[in-house]
Amino acid sequence: MSHEHRDNGPRRVGQVKEVTSLANPIIKDIKALSDKKTREQSGTFMAEGLKLVIDAIELGWTIRTLVYAKAAKGKPLVEQMAAKTVASGGLVLEVSEKVLSSITRRDNPQMVVGVFENRWKPLRDIRPAKGETWIALDRVRDPGNLGTIIRTADAAGASGVILVGETTDPFSLETVRATMGSVFAMPVSRATPEEFIAWKKQAGVSLVATHLAGSVDYRTIDYKTKPVVILMGNEQSGLPEQLSREADALARIPQQGLADSLNLAVASAVMMFEARRHLLSLSEAK
Ligand code: SAM
């Protein structure tokens, strides 16, 4: 078989562009992805680090551009990802560390950055089956919280995340960083409160909303009979009445001590692991 016909065969000269100038227009376009509007308009986002880039490509996400530092040149995994990028019609850039730092806004940047096409799961396509757990987040603001919740949802075996109302962007660099790659494994959907409520009414799910004034101990709820959607409130203001009144149960995690409430990501973790307690076992664990 000739080299040209091998999927992961050597790249032809000219398929890797070398860039050292911060003023290069392709670099400017990539840097502009730190802006939410640009991400939305282009339908793309950035992920840093070789592990994340490998996870994304292996899970079938479309890579538009692979950027790597000169120092990473020749590393077998980087070369493999570069070959896959070229094979799927993407662009490969070899850049100076200075350029990489400016893209990721870090002094010690990762050696590899990928630009991927984003994916939103349409809410109407979510039809939870028994044994599934989804987590819905009302106006989540903090990228670290959202990333941590996506990562935790993945680890707990949840099926995906539904963003309700105006929320922080799951495809921002900070959120993607905090997901540690789980953003590539977890479907993410978005909806207005009205769309979410209409969807809930026909989805055949048990909506368990969490609230500091909830009257039900979260450990006493039936998480087995129906698929479960756990609904979490905004960091500052909690759940609005418009959403809490749609709940089948208003759950509270009993607390002691001085703190008024748990951090949103921590409360989400407690809820997801409780809702899936009967489905999680060490024997099936990684
Ligand atoms: N000041 C907000 C309030 O009054 O609701 C605090 C919000 S708390 C930081 C963010 C979200 O985490 C809450 O809306 C709720 O969904 C969840 N949460 C935090 N602690 C909880 C607890 N002890 N029981 C139930 N939900 C909790």
UniProtKB/TrEMBL annotation:
Transmembrane segments: none annotated. CDD domains: SpoU-like_rRNA-MTase (cd18095). SMART domains: SpoU_sub_bind. Coiled coil: none annotated. Keywords: Methyltransferase, Transferase. Pfam families: MRM3-like_sub_bind, SpoU_methylase. GO terms for cellular component: cytoplasm. InterPro entries: Alpha/beta_knot_MTases, MRM3-like_sub_bind, Ribosomal_eL30-like_sf, rRNA_Methyltransferase, SpoU_MeTrfase, SpoU_subst-bd, tRNA_m1G_MTases_N. One of its GO terms (biological process) is methylation. SUPFAM superfamilies: alpha/beta knot, L30e-like. Residues 46-122 form the RNA 2-O ribose methyltransferase substrate binding domain. One of its GO terms (molecular function) is RNA binding. Belongs to the class IV-like SAM-binding methyltransferase superfamily. RNA methyltransferase TrmH family. This is TrmH family RNA methyltransferase.
